[in-house]
Amino acid sequence: MKESQSPRNSQLFASPNPTTKEITFGEREYAEVAESLCEALQGKSFFSDHTITEHEGFYSLLTTTLIIYRTEPNDPESPVRGIVPVWWEMKTYLEDPLRSPHTECLNDFSLRELLRHICPEK
Length: 122
Hints:
Structural class: alpha+beta
Number of strands: 5
Shape: elongated
Distance between the termini: 30 Å
Strand order of the largest sheet: 1-5-4-3-2
Strand content: 35-45%
Radius of gyration: 16 Å
Helix content: 10-25%
């Protein structure tokens, strides 16, 4: 299959697959998760926690342990220069994961793709 024909490239938005219940992340979903994570990273050089993001039709729960490098090492408010992931896990649910019951779904999330939204290559 050619790169331009890739199903991943043709989908701009996430959509639960009713037969396998797999969620596909698109640009919009990565941007939403990046925004949630950036808010949680403010003022930190180390982060070990989770963020929950509500998307159209599903929720994502990103649990991460990250080392955050900033443009000014002694200024935790300076812009993020780089992130080193120590550990991460992305779970997706059709319902709010803080409420029971909830249905977990497979997903095609990529931490590398998420980090491109936070620390674009120069």
